[in-house]
Amino acid sequence: xxxxxxxxxxxxxxxxxxxxxxxxxxxxxxxxxxxxxxxxxxxxxxxxxxxxxxxxxxxxxxxxxxxxxxxxxxxxxxxxxxxxxxxxxxxxxxxxxxxxxxxxxxxxxxxxxxxxxxxxxxxxxxxxxxxxxxxxxxxxxxxxxxxxxxxxxxxxxxxxxxxxxxxxxxxxxxxxxxxxxxxxxxxxxxxxxxxxxxxxxxxxxxxxxxxxxxxxxxxxxxxxxxxxxxxxxxxxxxxxxxxxxxxxxxxxxxxxxxxxxxxxxxxxxxxxxxxxxxxxxxxxxxxxxxxxxxxxxxxxxxxxxxxxxxxxxxxxxxxxxxxxxxxxxxxxxxxxxxxxxxxxxxxxxxxxxxxxxxxxxxxxxxxxxxxxxxxxxxxxxxxxxxxxxxxxxxxxxxxxxxxxxxxxxxxxxxxxxxxxxxxxxxxxxxxxxxxxxxxxxxxxxxxxxxxxxxxx
Length: 456
Description:
Layout: H1 2-11, H2 13-18, E1 23-26, H3 52-58, E2 82-84, E3 90-92, E4 101-105, E5 108-122, E6 130-147, E7 150-158, E8 169-179, E9 182-188, E10 194-206, E11 209-218, H4 244-247, E12 256-263, E13 266-273, E14 292-299, E15 305-314, E16 325-336, E17 340-352, E18 356-367, E19 372-383, E20 399-413, E21 418-430, H5 436-439, E22 444-454
Antiparallel strand pairs: 1-4, 2-3, 4-5, 5-6, 5-22, 6-7, 7-10, 8-9, 10-11, 11-12, 12-13, 13-14, 14-15, 15-16, 16-17, 17-18, 18-19, 19-20, 20-21, 21-22
């Protein structure tokens, strides 16, 4: 209960912000398929401005908006043909606009977004556990149009998940990071209090071409697809993917500088960042270093597709593999029709020195109607961290595990761009017979949730 109260306290300022006496814009009133200059999507990237004429064309002029100067419009990053995901990652424009609470204050446009999950999970088999816990996230961003095609965005995002304790929650076959100095296995660590403290500046240098600079003390480098909690294809999965540490474990990084160029439907970027994953002390800011690098290329051939390939060299990313660097390479393909959002992705992490461990993920969310959604995910991971005890005969052995998960969410739209979703999912697994004695022959897990969200 104390955790629930703390999480509610984190989100309480967000709806309150909407009640201030500023000009407020409801993103839910935007059309489902906005034009290139009008779209918006959730992410950690810099929006481009929209003029009063743009709002008039959409049929929803902003209250109190002056007609003699442009008003910046929240277009959370991306090019004119792709929407922003987490960090500087791109998602399909057809995913639609970000729905949240927005208000103007002078020359600034502010957006509030967040979610609160109440979750119960029962992870099957001898190694599985059951637990009830709370997940949370709150985000504020402020954007200003400086004119001449230049915009600035400041962003802060946080979570009260550290209140659940260093060991996080049960998640069968997940691994990565530590609690009390011991490796976490079959559990997912909580997010840090500070999930992002960043800034981004964009400037147009030619028609349909802009340069951008992004980073901050807590940010996300240009490596991998958009993080799972920001992908619409993963919206109603209460538990993190077991492949999280292959694809997007760097989404909270203490020290990032990214530069890039967007030209038409292509984005090229590179990052200098801290390769070490966050430590187990989740309430503070870790030491900031710039000792690793990554590069990423993204392409959006149409408004429905985004492809990315990326690679990065991470300096000693995992405390459980001290002194070992990692070369991480990923590729992903995202699709959206609006009602259906999907992703398929591949990742390989090569420990230096050490083995190459690969992972595959395919996931989708299908909004059947305004109230009913189906979702599913298949993951295949090669993991050598399931037996951290050096005395175990299975220590450091690589096992390839496949997880199948499917579920349903009943969505209840509420006032002021809030939504309550009630649902659950069931997961089954394929694994080598050598794991039967430890995990059981056919473990089955299930998860129930209530998800309250401000915005999409």
